[in-house]
Specification:
Layout: H1 7-18, H2 21-49, H3 52-71, H4 76-88, H5 96-111, H6 115-126, H7 131-159, H8 162-186
Helix pairs in contact: 1-4, 1-5, 1-7, 2-5, 2-6, 2-7, 3-6, 3-8, 6-7
């Protein structure tokens, strides 16, 4: 849900106008696997030297902050305008491999420091015994969210307002933060 309406999903939607759905989904998948791996490695490192209480407390704070930040209108219009200009320019004939690498690289760097990357870092730190599960879950979640951007982005945008989507995402983060706080204080040192 955190990825819905995010700049990387808008980027995916714009790239799907330029390249085939297979190329875009392949590039997003490669970029997602790499950014999720990096996120989980960071989270695992943090999780190895902090207690369960502190990891849950930090996770709770992070999710509450993400929830509150989700309520703010993000400057996605600027991202959309830049992507529209890119899509409207004449596309050069590019091989599928080069196109996949271009999408993967763009997606990887767009996701750096994004709230979904930070959420993965927090979850990986809290669930430090489940490296592969967090990595695969994070990657699958991002790929599925962006596949929605490719397939149904326009239909979703016409049925659900960006404001309603922000409220839904904020609610999910706030509830997750509350659950993390409850878990932290259940295991208070």
């Amino acid at each position: 849900m955190a990825e819905m309406g995010d700049k990387t999903q808008l980027m995916t939607l714009a790239m799907s106008a330029k390249f085939s759905a297979v190329v875009v989904l392949s590039g997003v998948s490669v970029g997602t696997l790499l950014v999720s791996l990096l996120s989980v490695l960071l989270g695992q490192t943090v999780g190895s030297f902090l207690s369960y209480f502190w990891i849950n407390l930090i996770a709770g704070l992070a999710f509450v902050v993400f929830g509150l930040l989700s309520l703010r209108a993000e400057p996605e219009e600027k991202v959309e305008e830049a992507l529209k200009e890119e899509v409207e320019s004449p596309a050069k004939k590019t091989s599928d491999i080069r196109a996949i690498l271009a999408v993967a690289t763009t997606f990887f760097f767009a996701e750096m420091g994004d709230k979904t990357m930070l959420a993965t870092v927090v979850i990986a730190g809290r669930e430090h015994n489940y490296f592969w599960q967090v990595w695969v879950g994070s990657a699958l979640g991002l790929v599925l969210a962006n596949a929605l951007g490719i397939v149904a982005g326009k239909a979703l945008a016409s049925k659900i307002s960006a404001k309603a989507m922000r409220y839904m995402v904020a609610a999910i983060y706030l509830v997750s933060g509350g659950l993390a706080f409850a878990e932290a204080f259940k295991h208070k040192p």
